[in-house]
């Protein structure tokens, strides 16, 4: 999910998108090729810091946070820690410079296994190729006459410009997409399919939260309506983009929004209470709305 002020977060999003989209078996194969945990401390032009941990050793998942501890929560111990500024990280990912060269110039600091630092460019290049081989993102809901939306999604593919609530939905995919144990626990507890209709600057945009046991990391979030994705939603929730963001942030509750007329529903309205639990679980210490 894009992080304001950190252009290089797109690099991490690409890694996350690939890992989330892969099947469990394919993800294990990619992890086996690297066998390392990378930790990044990225500093932007304003001096702000953001932290990322990329586990390519065990579960194959990515976490982030505004503190090192938040990003490292639930992750194995890093084999290498890299401190880099936002601009340099982008240049490394684009092949315009190397981690080794920037290390010598002092723009990159490395702790841990130095050899893994030398492998950073090939790693990013490999995942870039994998990302290019994935189906193109579908940022908006398909037309009613279109085929069902693809069941392979990444955090980037569900984000719609002008809809801040889509970042909340992307966070759900990011939180549960590649963490099999966490996803299975949430699916078992929720056992429901939601259609979220958000009213924003370009009209109503829809997403499906497929939170029933058996859903894979690639299809727990689907752009478009339930009908377009050939799913049966237990409830459809209709609200403004800003109210959905407030709901996710805990500023309002589903019940209060419903009573105030801010939230409309079709189907089992009690499922809205379960959605609040999902939003809370997905938010975590590293969520960015």
UniProtKB/TrEMBL annotation:
<feature type="domain" description="SCP2">
    <location>
        <begin position="172"/>
        <end position="280"/>
    </location>
</feature>
<feature type="compositionally biased region" description="Low complexity">
    <location>
        <begin position="140"/>
        <end position="155"/>
    </location>
</feature>
<feature type="region of interest" description="Disordered">
    <location>
        <begin position="135"/>
        <end position="155"/>
    </location>
</feature>
<dbReference type="Pfam" id="PF02036">
    <property type="entry name" value="SCP2"/>
</dbReference>
<dbReference type="InterPro" id="IPR036527">
    <property type="entry name" value="SCP2_sterol-bd_dom_sf"/>
</dbReference>
<protein>
    <recommendedName>
        <fullName>SCP2 domain-containing protein</fullName>
    </recommendedName>
</protein>
<feature type="domain" description="SCP2">
    <location>
        <begin position="24"/>
        <end position="125"/>
    </location>
</feature>
<dbReference type="GO" id="GO:0005829">
    <property type="term" value="C:cytosol"/>
</dbReference>
<dbReference type="InterPro" id="IPR003033">
    <property type="entry name" value="SCP2_sterol-bd_dom"/>
</dbReference>
